[in-house]
Amino acid sequence: MTVKSDREIIQAFEIPESKELAFSQLVRKYQERLYWHCRRLLINHEDADDALQNTFMKVWSNLEKFRADSSLYTWLFRIATNESLTILRSNKKHLKDSSNKGEYDSNLADMLESDPYFDGDEAQKKLQKAIQSLPEKQRLVFNMKYYEEMKYKDMAEVLNTSEGALKASYHHAVKKIESFVKAD
Predict the structure, then answer these.
(1) Domains of the chain (ranges plus CATH)?
(2) CA torsion 108→113→115→121, rounded to 10°?
(3) What is the distance of C-alpha 11 from the center of its chain?
(4) pLDDT tens-digit readout, 127-158
(5) pTM for the structure as a whole
(6) Distance, CA of 75 to CA of 29 (rounded, Å)
């Protein structure tokens, strides 16, 4: 099966007879990238899977309404980002309601040590711990720029903010990561 362009997938999705096939092509084309985007934000494999599943359920429900004001890629990343942030905030709220107030972000980095799906070396673990120590917005921007090599213009669409603010967030994130890595 040949990989179809985003436009071809959207057009095929609009035809009832090819809707399911078009959707499965969209999933195959983007699932790995979206999974790793969610995973870098959530750390936990199960949470990333949940975010990805929620993302594709929303895509299935709303693809017919997609107006192509942005690229399909940035639209999908916006949905995946929002789903990941919803899970992050929900997890934080559950911990906040318990006796572990405010420890969720620091626990994310510790999850790397016990995660059977993480096979990184010590340098990768150190980088991930540094990333997890960042405030949420800086962590998002750093992951999108560093791992996804996303352009600031696309990030601005995904996060609904200015390119200047994103550049500043990325700069601050890099400085904090450098300090974190040098401190050990």
Answers:
(1) 1-119 (1.10.1740.10), 121-184 (1.10.10.10)
(2) 110
(3) 26
(4) 888 998 999 999 999 999 999 999 999 999 99
(5) 0.82
(6) 14
